[in-house]
Amino acid sequence: MTSRDDDQPTERVVIRDKRRIDPTGGKVKSEADSKDEPVEAPEKSERDTDKEHKPSHAAPDEAVEGEIVEEAETTTEPTEPEAPSKDASPLGAELEALRSELEERTNDLQRVTAEYANYRKRVDRDRGLAAEQTTGTVLGALLPVLDDLDRAREHGDLVGPFAAVSEQLVAALGKFGLTAFGEKGDPFDPTRHEAVAHQTSAEVTEPTCVQVMRRGYLLGDRLLRPALVAVADPE
């Protein structure tokens, strides 16, 4: 069974205290008191004027809140603090000094590296020239021996074991870059031949070596000794 209290609806009594705030700074008066005493209307401010022009469907509290937020956004914009100057800070000055020192040391290293590379090239070139000069000196001293071998070959005396020794000597000297030149019938080259006799001949069309008294030798591309020849000019 249900009780009697549950069947009947419960009545809720709400007492509202309707009071108005006196805009002039007076005491709070109830709605009944405000009917008896006339209240002077306060002067409208610019904000109240703006509220009257706002649409009626917008709540007054929301409008005021929106105005307050907008005013706060326009008036209280945070400003970013200025970054300290790098040049003025001790760390920036020290960093700039280290950077300058590093650049100076890098330039010094590049200069020393270039000087060392040039020094190596110069030393290698001088070493090659010194070796070539030494080899030329030794081979120049052996040229008279080669001349005697050439005369013995022309007379037919270079035979037997002596001929084998002569060929081995020429092959060994050739390994050092020694090359013989100067044969009968070669065109006359004043840079490589030394003419000791001149004659005319109808058999040649240009100056030609018709006789070789002594062969010349080259050491690589360098002339070690010119050849002695007799030259025939065309008639």
From TrEMBL:
The keyword Plastid does not apply. Residues 1-55 have a biased composition (Basic and acidic residues). SUPFAM superfamilies: Coiled-coil domain of nucleotide exchange factor GrpE, Head domain of nucleotide exchange factor GrpE. It comes from the Bacteria. InterPro entries: GrpE (IPR000740), GrpE_CC (IPR013805), GrpE_head (IPR009012). Participates actively in the response to hyperosmotic and heat shock by preventing the aggregation of stress-denatured proteins, in association with DnaK and GrpE. It is the nucleotide exchange factor for DnaK and may function as a thermosensor. Unfolded proteins bind initially to DnaJ; upon interaction with the DnaJ-bound protein, DnaK hydrolyzes its bound ATP, resulting in the formation of a stable complex. GrpE releases ADP from DnaK; ATP binding to DnaK triggers the release of the substrate protein, thus completing the reaction cycle. Homodimer. This is Protein GrpE. The gene is grpE_1.
